């Protein structure tokens, strides 16, 4: 049995039964998106970063309650979050070390700002570079992809996103193949948490994500759903 929902363009997002009891995710499509530079996003990120430093300075990741959800998601797939960090934790660690975040473009910067806000991993993809239906499942032996500014991301035994070309996303790092660039107009975002995460809180996270893109990227939200084993009808 597989959880499955259609996107506006007819493609489907499917959550395999092997992960549905461990995963709750928010799925959102934003179209069109104007990707450019926007210093207002940088200012908002700097303001939030200062708040986070005040709140969490001197604490180890395991001592920060807001990171527990993402770390538990990793543990549920047998991954040590201290060795292979959720993307949201990696962002927070940069901020707490005073290193700041990379400034890429308004879309990527909005995604990082949102992830810092609710401290969950967010996968963000150029939907036009995704080929066919999208499956969220456990990676098989040898499945991997080149991450953005990272080495190969290995998915064997781990949660990943796959299309007909292969893997393209995970809670750790997005792929170079489907990354958002200046030419991107259609964005798919996936916010990932454990199956025990509150669906209403996930819907609130999608509100935050969408509102940032409306404010800073002139985007329009055309689709959203929260996928979890207790929320969507199962299909063969």
- Low-confidence runs: none
Quickly count the domains.
1
Rg over alpha carbons: 17 Å
Strand order across the largest sheet: 9-8-5-2-1-12
Largest sheet: 6 strands, mixed
The N- to C-terminal Cα distance equals 5 Å
Order of helices and strands: EEHEHHHHEEEEEEEHEE
Mean pLDDT: 94
Number of strands: 12
Structural class: alpha+beta
* CATH-derived topology: Phenylalanyl-tRNA Synthetase, Chain B, domain 3
CATH architectural designation = 3-Layer(bba) Sandwich
CATH superfamily: Phenylalanyl-trna Synthetase, Chain B, domain 3
Q: Roughly what fraction of the amino acids lie in strands?
A: 15-25%
Note the total helix count: 6
User: Which descriptor suits the 3D outline?
Assistant: globular
Helix content: 25-40%
For the record, what CATH class applies? Alpha Beta
General description of the model:
The chain is an alpha+beta fold and 236 residues long. The chain has a single domain (2-235), classed as Phenylalanyl-tRNA Synthetase, Chain B, domain 3 (3-Layer(bba) Sandwich), CATH 3.50.40. It has 6 helices and 12 strands. The chain has helices at 17-20, 39-56, 68-76, 87-96, 106-118, 199-217, and strands spanning 2-6, 12-16, 24-30, 122-126, 134-138, 144-146, 152-154, 159-163, 166-169, 187-193, 221-227, 234-235. The strands form 3 sheets. The protein has a 6-stranded mixed beta sheet with strand order 9-8-5-2-1-12. The termini are close together. 44% of the residues are buried. The mean pLDDT is 94.
